[in-house]
Amino acid sequence: MTPIEGAAMTTSLPQSSHEHANRQAGHPHAARSVAQHAAAVQSLLAPLRSVDRTEVLPLAQALGRGLVHALRAPISLPPFANSQMDGYAIRSMDVPDGGAELSVAAPVPAGQTPPALAPGTAAPIMTGAVLPEGADAVVPIERAVPDSFQQPGVSTTVWLPAAAAGTFVRAEGSDLSAGDVALAAGAFLGPAQLGLLAGLGITDVEVYRAVSVLLVTTGDEVVEPGQDLPAGKIFDANATLLEAAMTQAGLHVQRSAIATDHPDEFLDLIRAGRAGVDLLVTTGGVSKGAYEVVRQAMASQPVEFLHVGMQPGGPQGIGSIDGLPFLGFPGNPVSALVSFEMFLRPALTALLGAPQSRLPLRATLGHDLTSPAGKHQVRRGSLKPGGTVELAGGESSHLMHALAGANVLVHVPVGVAALAAGDEVEVWML
């Protein structure tokens, strides 16, 4: 069970006036749960799953997309009974338990339709070749005497051991029968799925369009990498971190200039870059400080700023600006990435079939940890051979070096205050 199981299938989340009033008043006990916020994000993005956001692509261009409609197999796989081995095709009734000497029939190369197999004969057959009519088993060449195929005219007989009917035979439709569902609606199209479709003779598929995101980093203290770094300033890691994560997940990312802490300038920046964009994602400016530009700029917009019971990544913004769906992530880099992995990525997977879900695994803690009361903690870790996970860095959300050394997210659910070395935890592979 994943930490937010059940949220992915929810398309709306009614919010009581009591809950909203408590959050607006800043009561800490009114924090939204991870599952509730995941459901709210999915509800916000539900319009992305519409018929006008689909396209038909050739298989070579469909990698990483989600399938719109279920596809049924137009043919069976394999389309005919064939040999699983290089060997001899036989009629199993012709070979008793002690083996038998059989006459060698004409060989059966792959790609040709052979004649029926006469009783008392064995046909040399190649892997993948059509099983002759009458044959029902294949004996591998290494079990034959002689154990190599002979040149025509050299040997007219071969000794073979007994083989039960069906031995080393790939039956027609043993992988997939014609008319069966090959891929369900919403399936993620990775190499294996595209290979299956190609094997069925399908050349193109209808998929959901890639989501286009306008990504905005905020803060007067943030400067672009490569510029001078005045005292009190920091280089912008968030934009590169999130752009890379989103691009790897198949999203199309448009980065804006860094937004200052002036609300009017922030709004001008958003409105200038929103053309053709499906979603606005910002980092920073969503907490309760004195210079939270995103909160200030969206005071007149249908946007809610709230706290999710999660560490890191508690402060979140959600709503729309001039009709454009909006998600506001915290400004610390780890918090921003965890927000993407916990909320945006699963919502798109549930709605559009892509990106691919993170793989949840069970791992054994390498050492003790503690977790704050009432929060779902997400730690970074390194999963070692043998299934032990070592935590990378501490709880703080600014530890970029620790994040760079991690290969999993470690989940500590709400209600778990401490875990000891040797306890099991759920981890998501990054």
UniProtKB/TrEMBL annotation:
Region (Disordered): 1-34
Keywords assigned: Magnesium, Metal-binding, Molybdenum, Molybdenum cofactor biosynthesis, Transferase
Catalytic activities: adenylyl-molybdopterin + molybdate = Mo-molybdopterin + AMP + H(+)
InterPro entries for the chain: MoaB/Mog-like_dom_sf, MoaB/Mog_dom, MoeA-like, MoeA_C_domain_IV, MoeA_C_domain_IV_sf, MoeA_linker/N, MoeA_linker/N_sf
Required cofactor(s): Mg(2+)
Keyword Transferase tagged: yes
EC supergroup of this enzyme: transferase
GO cellular component, one term: cytosol
An annotated GO BP: Mo-molybdopterin cofactor biosynthetic process
GO function terms (MF aspect): metal ion binding; molybdopterin molybdotransferase activity
Keyword Magnesium: yes
Domain of life: Bacteria
Domain annotation MoaB/Mog: ranges: 214-350
Metabolic or biological pathway, per its Swiss-Prot or TrEMBL entry: Cofactor biosynthesis; molybdopterin biosynthesis
CDD domains: MoeA
The protein's Enzyme Commission number: 2.10.1.1
Function: Catalyzes the insertion of molybdate into adenylated molybdopterin with the concomitant release of AMP.
Family: Belongs to the MoeA family.
Name used for this protein in its record: Molybdopterin molybdenumtransferase
Organism in which the protein naturally occurs: Arthrobacter ulcerisalmonis
Biological classification of the source: Bacteria, Bacillati, Actinomycetota, Actinomycetes, Micrococcales
